[in-house]
Write a structure and sequence with these properties.
Shape: globular
Bound molecules: flavin mononucleotide
Radius of gyration: 15 Å
Order of helices and strands: EHEHEHHEHEEH
Number of helices: 6
Strand content: 15-25%
Distance between the termini: 15 Å
C-alpha cells in the first residue's frame, strides 16, 4: 500500500493529498496524521507527506493555536485541530528504507517555501528515499469562501493528481 499523510486545518492540504493518492493508484490512501498510525506507515511502500506552510515553515503548536483563534473568511471557517501537527507526526515516524515524497500548500507569492523542504529533510533523516523534489501547491491569499478545500488555486488538484502518477512511475522505474 502507498499512503499520503496530511495535516490540514481548512481542508486544502487534505484535498491535495486525496488527489495525489488518486494519481498514485488504487492501492494508495490519503490519511490524516491521526489516521496514519505507525503500524500502517511501517507497511507502506511509498509515504507521501504534506502540510500547510505556516510562518514560512511547518505549522507549530503556536501557529495552530493562532489559526484556531481566527476563523477564516466571511463564513468564519474554523480550523480543524483534531489531528496532530505534521511536525509531531514526523518526530514519531517509524524509520526504514521506503520511498517518499514531500509537499506543502502555501499562498501564491514570495512567502514561505519551507514546509515541504522541512518534511523532505525529516523523511530523509528517517531513512526514506525521496522520489522527487519537494513540491508546493497554491492556495489563494484572499478568499470569502466558507467551504473547506475551496481555497485552492485553479488547476492545483489536477497538478496534484499528475504528480501522484509521476511518483508512481518513478517508483516503478526503481524496482
Ligand atoms: C497561522 C498561519 C500562518 C501562515 N503562514 C504562511 C506563510 O508563511 N506562507 C504562506 O505561503 N502561507 C501561509 N499561510 C497560509 C497557509 O499556507 C494556508 O492557510 C494553507 O495552505 C491552507 O491549507 P489547509 O486548508 O490544509 O490548512 C498561513 C496560514 C496560517 C493559518
Amino acid at each position: 500500500m502507498d499512503v499520503v499523510v496530511y495535516e490540514s486545518l481548512y481542508g486544502n492540504t487534505a484535498a491535495v493529498a486525496r488527489a495525489i493518492a488518486e494519481g498514485l493508484g488504487d492501492d494508495a490512501r490519503a490519511l490524516s496524521t491521526r489516521e496514519a498510525t505507525p503500524e500502517i506507515v511501517a507497511g507502506a511502500r511509498i509515504v507521501v507527506a504534506g502540510a500547510p506552510v505556516h510562518g514560512m515553515s511547518l505549522p507549530s503548536e503556536r501557529s495552530r493555536a493562532s489559526a484556531a483563534a481566527k476563523p477564516q473568511g466571511e463564513g468564519h471557517l474554523a480550523a480543524d485541530l483534531d489531528h496532530p501537527s505534521m511536525r509531531s507526526w514526523l518526530a514519531g515516524m517509524a524509520h526504514g528504507p521506503r520511498l517518499a515524497a514531500a509537499f506543502d500548500t502555501r499562498i501564491r507569492g514570495p512567502l514561505g517555501h519551507g514546509g515541504a523542504k522541512a518534511i523532505a529533510h525529516a523523511l530523509e533523516a528517517a531513512g526514506l528515499t525521496l522520489l522527487d523534489e519537494p513540491r508546493g501547491f497554491t492556495v489563494h491569499l484572499h478568499t470569502t469562501s466558507s467551504t473547506p478545500a475551496a481555497l485552492l488555486a485553479e488547476g492545483e488538484l489536477d497538478a496534484a493528481r499528475a504528480w501522484g502518477t509521476h511518483l508512481r512511475e518513478v517508483a516503478a522505474s526503481r524496482t
